[in-house]
Amino acid sequence: MYPKPFSKFLAGLALVLQALATSALAAEGPPIPPGPLDEALNAYAQRRGLVISYDASLTRGLRSPGLPAPTGTDEDLSALLAGTGLSARRNAEGRIQLRKAPSSPAVELAPITVSGVQESAFGPVDGVVATRSASGSKTDAALLETPQTINVISRSEMDRRPVRSTAEALAYTPGVNAAWAGYDVRFDVIQLRGFNANYATYQDGLRSATGEYVIPRLNPYGAERIEVLKGPASVLYGQNTPGGLVNFVTKAPTETRQGEIQLEGGSNDHKQGAFDLGGPLNEGATLRYRLTGLYRDAGASLDRVDETNRYFAPAFTWAPNADTSFTLRVQYQRDLVDGWTGYFWPAEGTLYGNPNGRLKRSRFPGEPGVDRWDVEQRSVGYRLDHRLNSIWKVSQNLRYAEIDFDARNSFLNGFLDDEKRLIDRSYVGWKEQVYAFTVDNQVQAEFDTGPLSHTVLAGLDLRRVNNSYRFYMGTLGPLDLYRPVYGQRPRDIAEYTDTRTHTTQIGYYLQDQIRAGQWVFTGGARYDRAWADKQGVNFGSDAAGSQSDTAWTGRAGIVYLARNGLAPYVSYSTSFDPATGATRSGSPFKPTEGEQYEAGIKYEPPGQKAFVTLSAFQLTQKNVIAADPSDPAFNAQTGEVRVRGVELEGKAELGLGWTLIASYAYSHGEVTRNTPDYTGVNTEGKAVPNLPRHQAALWADHSFGGAARGLTAGMGVRYRSSTYGDAYNELGMKPVTLVDARVSYDLGALDPSLKGLAFALSATNLFDRRYVASCGSTTSCYWGQERQVYGTLSYRW
């Protein structure tokens, strides 16, 4: 049960919701405020249930005077277009098309069809090319106008490629290494621009609940889109690592009836069923629902390991009018692994040779019936949006989450014999419970000051986490990795850690997006307070203590929107992340600080479904914990890490059935400041571990016509250059190139009665390339994922 103050707080929120609901029902014919023309058209299309078609270049940089007094007739559209130089006409199909006013020479443009509503940053993407995102601004902003790199993986893209995990969803995204720890079905390990982002995952703009050890494994089937915000993001989200964050935009209730049922089977006895249902609950679609669920029972690449996944996520939306929306989300997920997949293999037999040959990737080094991983997640939350008038809008985003975690495994310590066969093992286990409450309150105002148009966002967010954590160890007999004999049981089990931690973060932020003609400036500042209290025992020592930190962070950037679709930009942003521990003098560590300079250019070709981003950046993390030069037994904050790089991403629907996704990243990361450790070794000048100098990926698929109508075939290639797995740069991973493929067939092309029924065959690492993903030391190496093949039968309506 969560603390009583929060129960009272939730009760107060209920009263606020009731008041807003009453206000919403009382509103009649609400005005559409002045603002960007595409946003005004979006609001108008939603209200009237219209389909509007236009070329994106027509509205770029234009503003609408708004609609202060709606009449409910087509004259409203003329009022919205006043002063823009555009006019509207209705075609024979009843769709409204925009064009230049008759005083200008008529130009035939390939229209972009908006099916009832233009793309929203909080909803689905039509195809693989996204044009809007909220991750970089917390507002429904165009990607062209956001002065920071944002990569968007749409639902359509995830359906086109072989995707069953977050790592696979991010596999074609530049600057992301989401599988550096190799094959692991327990959780996703993510690195962004060289920095660990395991705990920087978000759902619908709120940080996911995490613990001392447990990292939730988010299910991509429940995502409408996955967005990667590169670089420091503390100005909007509070404490974070400098590399960025990953935001899952979950599936939301739909205004039209839709559904999907999937059955799937494949490698390692993989069996899966999934469903996704949604639509209106009443005639006016003011009540809508979405039910998403998945059940998976499968083996793993390791022998004697099985996994079971359950995922269920209902959501309901109440939208009494165009100005008010309330969406309730509930989620349940349980990931149970009978066995273990995160083993640290010795370098001899994986990275290096072994007198007995290479170790089998499928070898199980644990003990059947002993090794286990069990994570159960439950959450409930909502998002409320209410427009008060033509200027003001208020929003509240809230979630309460619980995690129960229980895991134990055989830990590999290294070979015991000169023959390199007998591995030393110990037994380790964890138990953890996490209770997390997060709320983000926002006020948004849109107004003009002379020639400047403002979108101002002010917010206050709060995060409270109560965590109980236990860690225990024991002994376990050795195992012959080349001829294993199982049946041993752990002995001498003792608890080493038993702690209870209460953490709180509260942040106040202010952001202004200013438009002046073709220029867009974004600036923001934030003040955070974060404190933690810990009680209990850690390895026999009293762990009681408290720590309090404060930090100011900010961001500034400017974009120029050229008429030809080019948008060059520059930006500066900062971040902070509290560091636990203390110096030799007993002073608590200061938060680590991140700082990024970025310049780039975005390109949205007029009249085409394509988007290209090219960026160059310098990212620095300061106050990194390092050995105290005066006493190596203690630590000091004298370290610094810098990453410089260039990233390129392009996504396009080229016509004639072709879709293309391409990316490249050059990254040079090094430790720019450090001190010798207790052995006297200094890593200053060393490369950042697990950061490849070069990454490249290319995916192309083609939907055939003619006699092959209904057939779609796609293939992708991923390249990663050599990396170092350890901080001392002694363990080098070789370059690797992997191939993925997918073929699908719409059975409706054979017989109209089979419309919606489709079959797909997909594969990752098609040629079964054997490689080592990473080695942190000579006793901790990770195998890369072997080939996986799946067949999927789906029915959509």
TrEMBL record:
It is a multi-pass membrane protein. Residues 50-101 form the Secretin/TonB short N-terminal domain. Residues 1-26 form the signal peptide. Coiled coil: none annotated. It comes from the Bacteria. SUPFAM superfamilies: Porins. It is found in: Cell outer membrane. Keywords: Cell outer membrane, Ion transport, Iron, Iron transport, Membrane, Receptor, Signal, TonB box, Transmembrane, Transmembrane beta strand, Transport. Gene3D superfamilies: 3.55.50.30, TonB-dependent receptor, beta-barrel domain, TonB-dependent receptor, plug domain. InterPro entries: Beta-barrel_TonB, Beta-barrel_TonB_sf, Plug_dom, Plug_dom_sf, Secretin/TonB_short_N, TonB-dep_rcpt-like, TonB_sidphr_rcpt. Its main location: membrane. Belongs to the TonB-dependent receptor family. This is TonB-dependent siderophore receptor. It comes from Achromobacter veterisilvae. The lineage of its organism: Bacteria, Pseudomonadati, Pseudomonadota, Betaproteobacteria, Burkholderiales.
